[in-house]
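Hey, sorry to bother you again with one of my protein questions. There's a protein on my desk that I can't quite get my head around. No rush at all, and the record is pasted right below.
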Amino acid sequence: MHPAYSVILFTTASGAGYGLIFWLSLLGVNGLLPIERWFGVASFGLAFGLITVGLLSSTFHLGHPERAWRAFSQWRSSWLSREGVAAVIAYIPAGLAAIAWVVFEDFSGIWGLMALAGAVMAIVTIICTAMIYASLRTIRQWHNPLVVPVYLSLGLATGALLLLLLMALFGYRTTYLEGPTLLLVGAAMMIKLVYWWKIDREDKTWTIEQATGLSASTQVNQLESPHYQDNYVLREMGYQVARKHAAKLRYYVMIFAFIAPILALGLDLYLDNTLSVVLTIISVASSALGVFIERWLFFAEAQHVVSLYYGESRA
């Protein structure tokens, strides 16, 4: 599949934003974060900024962005529509929780319930985003039970890294959060490794015989391509990345998205607190680059069954 940068920005930015909303809400309700006005302004402002930029960027990939509102009506059958509905609903409790934090500096009672509702909706929205791809049976690499865990783990891990950076910038102690964040990043790495292992080894179940409707016992050979010039189907559905390039990009994902943040946070546990800001900036910047590459590769490695009509024997 063609990796559209608008969709990559949408899935990475909104995932990190919802991850940050989840941790702010959950940890704030349990008294593990400072309920202070300007820290709340910066934290919720960054989270809502990432979510909004991500959602707006997703409309750039549409042929008619002005008609995007019509997608909300298909929530009964479309995960894209459900994602849009969940994203809008998530703004309400999360926004009320942000107001309570910033205006009243209070996260108890009804405000705590709003915060927990916002955390739940953040998770629901990430799941809906992942299911947009996981529900497509025509793309083997996406129709995989690990796609949702990959999206969830990366969203929660990047959100936790952003929270650590914000706390370090405001001078708050982050040691008690660094260990759990290390575990989150490590878990995301393991899930991604298992996902790659699975898609590399599973059988290509779709065949050219199935695509043409002929008997599976009949060998089908293509005489000529359906088109002699480039077209939309080839550009969007027939994009291919060389195996050697994919292997190199996977290596970069491992380095930037996982290993570098783990090393930076591990050092921060043992070094002087004055270096916390520098190390957390390194971890967040490296993670952002790594997740961007990971998401580009997620799209580039996907093979649509329509490629069977353009020379592929299996997909």
Notes: The chain has a mean pLDDT of 88. The longest helix spans residues 243-270. The chain has one domain: 5-310.
